[in-house]
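Page 37, continued from 36.
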């Protein structure tokens, strides 16, 4: 896993200058799937167990996300607390 090259690729090759969204690679059109996928990878590569690494300007910084659920860390923690507080699920039969 190499955070710096991943960030450089997403920031330099995957953004379009004329419209929003992120694309798979230069020459392709941006779409929702690749926008979500690329931003998820960008967030995970910025916030690793070794600390924070932001390539380029500080405006490139994304909020930390839970890599398993792909949502903000705080929301993942709230989800876990909510379900942990529920009684055990019992399935009949």
């Amino acid at each position: 896993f190499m955070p710096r090259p991943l960030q450089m690729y997403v920031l330099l090759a995957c953004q379009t200058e004329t419209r929003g969204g992120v694309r798979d690679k230069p020459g392709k059109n941006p779409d929702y799937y690749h926008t979500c996928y690329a931003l998820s990878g960008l967030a995970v590569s910025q916030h690793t167990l070794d600390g924070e690494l932001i390539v380029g300007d500080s405006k490139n910084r994304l909020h930390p996300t839970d890599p398993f659920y792909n949502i903000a860390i705080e929301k993942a923690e709230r989800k876990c607390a909510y379900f942990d507080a529920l009684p055990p699920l019992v399935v009949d039969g």
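The chain has a mean pLDDT of 93. Flag for discussion at group meeting. The radius of gyration is 17 Å.
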